Amino acid sequence: MTTVMVLRIVCIAVLCGCCSGVGAVEPTRLVWPTPNAPFSEGRPLDDWVQPTAAGNVESALFGCVRNDGNRFHEGIDIKATQRDRRGEATDPIYAAMDGVVAYINTTAWASGYGRYVVLEHPHLEPGIHTLYAHLRSVAPGLSVGRKVDAGEIIGTMGRSAGGYTIPRSRAHLHFEIGVRLTDAFQQWFDRQPFESPNRHGLYNGMNLVGLDPVAFFRRFFQAGPVDPAQFFTDQPVAFTLMVSSRGEPDFVRRYPSLRTRELPSEAVAGWLVGFTWYGLPVRWTPLGEEAHDALGAPGSVAVMSVDESTFRGRGCREILSLSGEGPVLERHGTRIVQLLFGFR
Questions:
Q1: Higher model confidence: residue 215 or residue 13?
Q2: pTM listed for this prediction
Q3: What is the distance between the alpha carbons of residues 300 and 303, in angstroms, rounded to a whole number?
Q4: Pick from 174, 202, 178: which is nearest to 127 by CA?
């Protein structure tokens, strides 16, 4: 029998307008994306994660968990519980929340994700997405723009991947929760010296930044109904950048709950942006013309504060370097800033 783990997220009227008045709609459901129930039962990681070939269970989790801590993993890998006679995984993959199909890739070789589906959840604030990768197949009839219900089958677990091979014994679901950095991704991509084209539009992995799915699920499971926006608010800020850039980035327009205050009545001259250690922008404070002198020339980026303890043992993401004369943005940190602000 298939078991679907269902949690409930409280519906905050001020954010989504869904709890006001008579006949309020059912609160948003949060569903574990596979039939693998041990997570909801609080059982050990060994019971539900799919580690890499090295066998270290932490390698299936989020963070600096690969290659002896030197490689970042953006999501979590959930192991198979059902197989056919050939040993291929057959677990159904469920939509984690009500949402809309934003992207489907059915060409396995075209992405490291293999076949994957991205759902947007615009009824939430912020309107996060969920990503389901390495699928064996996509559910028949699933198409971009179609609404899906939490718990609806959107595909079948598999081991599809581009550029490498996942053995049958390690078939799994790679699952991510996150936000996209910019709606101008193609313009940024076209300026880069990449040899391959962008085959995935806005849902190219370079344009997506995630959060820890286990922490997200545990937050709701252990503490009861919680406003999803509060999850972002509670993320520790590891460093803050001051960026000289006029106007409102499309990231802020898309996720307005991450802005700490209203836009100034005059023109926006820049931003203070607080990031997690792995580069998720979680605090956005607009700066007016009064900050013009401190901001410097348009395009200037300054590191304003750093919680150095947060970065210890987490250099795999290449966000910020703490060596030398002071903190400096590294390769991936620079890319995130470029994408957020349209810098070259």
A1: 215
A2: 0.91
A3: 10
A4: 178
Residue 34 and residue 173: Cα distance in Å, rounded? 8
DSSP labels, 69-123: TTEEE-SEEEE---B-TTS-B--EEE-SSSEEEEEEE--GGG-TT-EEEEEE-TT
CB 95 within 8 A of CB 119: yes
Burial class of residue 309, CB neighbours in 10 A (0-12, 13-18, 19+): exposed
Reduced to 3 states (helix: H, G, I; strand: E, B; else coil), residue 286 is strand
CATH superfamily of 6-223: Glucose Permease (Domain IIA) (2.70.70.10)
Do the Cβ atoms of 321 and 314 come closer than 8 Å? no
Q: What's the angle, vertex CA 120, arms to CA 115 and CA 124, rounded to 5?
A: 150
Q: Are 336 and 280 in contact (CB under 8 A)?
A: no
Condensed to tens digits (0 to 9), the pLDDT of residues 64-123 reads 999 999 999 999 999 999 999 999 999 999 999 999 999 999 999 999 999 999 999 998
Which amino acid, residue 28? T
Instruction: Judge whether 41 and 48 are in contact, CB under 8 Å.
Output: no
The most distant pair of C-alpha atoms in the chain lies apart, rounded to whole Å, by 69
Other Cβ atoms less than 10 A from the Cβ of 81: the count is: 18
Per-domain residue ranges of the chain: 6-223, 235-341
**DSSP symbol at 216:** H
- Using alpha carbons, list the distances in angstroms from residue 42 to 5, 37, 96, 183, 295: 12, 9, 19, 38, 48
Q: Tokens representing 167?
A: 């053995």
Residue 89's contacts (CB-CB under 8 Å, 6 or more residues apart) are: 80, 82, 83, 136, 156, 157, 158, 159, 171, 172
Q: Find how far residue 240's CA is from the centre of its chain.
A: 20
Per the document, the length of the chain is: 344
